[in-house]
């Protein structure tokens, strides 16, 4: 199953880049904001080139929440499958 692509508002991107420019390392800012480091690096690079939010479509808060929930559901389904397999494996050993 494909994990849906996470979408971020232009304001969130600008705020994230500002955190890095205020002196926080890319790694620390990414961890604090729940981002992948490379994503934040790309945003900083795009901001330096003046292209951070060019062509960005408007994402509503509902769309962001829906995207977050879809990725969480996908993660939970993967975890559930792992637990099912582990339960079957250990149940087989007991008998």
Taken as a percent bin, the fraction of beta residues is under 5%
Q: How many H/I helical runs?
A: 4
Poorly predicted runs of 5 or more residues: none
What structural category do the secondary elements indicate? mainly alpha
Biggest pleated-sheet summary: none
Percent of residues in helices comes to 55-70%
Plain-language structure description:
With 95 residues, the protein is mainly alpha-helical. α1 crosses α3 (37-48) and α2 crosses α3. The protein has one domain (10-94): Orthogonal Bundle (Arc Repressor Mutant, subunit A). The radius of gyration is 19 Å and the shape is elongated. The model has no long low-confidence stretch (mean pLDDT 86). The protein has four helices and no strands.
Topology:
Blueprint: H1 10-21, H2 26-33, H3 37-48, H4 61-94
Descriptors for this entry?
95 residues, mainly alpha, Arc Repressor Mutant, subunit A
What's the short story on this structure?
By secondary structure, the protein is mainly alpha-helical. It has helices at residues 10-21, 26-33, 37-48, 61-94. Helix content is 69%, strand content 0%.
